[in-house]
Amino acid sequence: MQWMTLFQKETLENWRNFKWLWVPITFILVAALDPVTTHYLPVILEKSGELPEGAILDLPTPTPPEAFLLSFGQLNLLGVAVVLLMTMGIIAAERKSGVTELILVKPVSYTAYITAKWASTLVLIFFSLFLGLLTSWYYVNILYGDLAFSIMIGSFFLYSVWITFVLTISIFMNVFFKTPGLVGFLSVALIILINSLNGLVSRFIDGYPPQINAYIREYVINGSTSGDLWLTLIITLLLIGVLLISSVLIFRKKELAA
Amino acid sequence: MSFIHVQHLKKQFDGTAVIEDVSFELEKGMCVSLLGPNGAGKTTTLRMLSGLMKPTSGLITFEGKSNKEDIRSWIGYLPQYPVFHNWMSGREFLIYVARLARLSKKEAASRADQLLQKVGLHEAKNRRIGKYSGGMKQRLGIAQAMIHRPKLIMLDEPVSSLDPNGRREVLNLIEELKKETTILFSTHILSDAEEVSDRLLLLHNGILHHSGTIEELQATQAVNRIIIEFESHSEQYIEQLISLPEVLQVEPHGDALYVEVNKIKDARSAILQQAVEHHWPLTSFEIGRLSLEELFMKVVNE
């Protein structure tokens, strides 16, 4: 099947250029670093000896859920950055270099070309995200106390939807521009915009994608969510679908050589 | 039988026409060269035929199918500067492309090996493409264009960027491929066109000036040439030659004179008569035709 050929090629490429190594490692570091360092912060500060004479260090100890949530704070910054960085040239760079002139004159389906890239990146990101959250959960249990495994699994699924949305935005930008740097910049800008409108939009409507992050917070702390989590998930998945389909449609209309 | 019809093809970029009204037909089994100087619109024409670009207007039909349909399975294409996935080996790339062209796994592998042998990359098949030389990449490019046995293969300047060795290899390869499929290749090197192609499409400034064989092109140019060589001092005969009504122009080339005439037959008698009457010290008398290069310059400068 042609789709599998494209998917396998992407996966092999990610393997040969070590993405299967550095992306999981980065996600593990990003997710686990904050819970660990927060725990050792008093010790670190004490040992560094920078505190003035007589100062009393009184940092509140986070509860296990709070400690676990620190991971998501970092993922929203660095995890998203890693996703955008590694995908900003996923189509743009191939078009810029001219490989597409060889590949797309073969009877290749444009839908397969784009969705295979999307899917193979998703597999890599889900794998890395899972390892990252698993490591974070492990340290939270050791350093702060019990946190249910199901909470980790549940939050992983919720965050997967958000990170898929982020990836799909990057793919969408890739279809428009041939310069990877520009694709990266515009994706970052768009995601910052979407995030910063969260407070305003959420006041009026339910189901705005970045609300997923608020639901994750609620879910990790209470074990359940109020409000329309399902609506948010469905709307986000729909938006992902719309972005993906428009990417294919726009790509089909593009002149592939310039 | 012609199986590709191109009718009134036109392409504009930001309002500037790069191709204006190009029409031609390709016959099955022919090797046709698309000849023209840099910037004539050769690459644009090939890209439109391959489907990489959409014509502003005009119609391309391929065995009755128009360019609105997907004709990519019938076409093999080698761009002017082919770029591969450098992290793959030559064999991996060919198999990948074969699979994309919907060959079965087994077929893809055997076809890849067969073509690697044919283009002389058998030894290097497991080396990464990033380490290939320019000539090797060009040959791999021809192999990937051939992989799905297309009915038409288009090569964009396949030899222009190669050194003499690489050029020879690729020209021999084209000679070889002529037996299997229809070939359309672009070039600005006239001798290459003359050497391997049966037919010419002469493109200049987006206009097709000629389509047909080299002989036909020569026939359309009403000018013929007689080359007369003298023992010495050829210049002194110029005046006499010019005065003949059959002679259009005389150009000295060392001890020889290039005499352009209307009708070879009449001019030959007239000149020979002169030569006998005035005892010209001739060493040779040759009926020559304009070389492709001269024809080309003539057409382009018109």
Automatic annotation (TrEMBL), chain B:
GO molecular-function terms, A-Z: ATP binding
SMART domains: AAA
InterPro entries, A to Z: AAA+_ATPase, ABC_transporter-like_ATP-bd, ABC_transporter-like_CS, DrrA1/2-like_C, P-loop_NTPase
Keyword field contains Calcium: no
Annotated ABC transporter domain residues: 4-230
Record's keyword terms, sorted: ATP-binding, Nucleotide-binding, Transport
Family per record: Belongs to the ABC transporter superfamily.
Protein name: ABC transporter ATP-binding protein
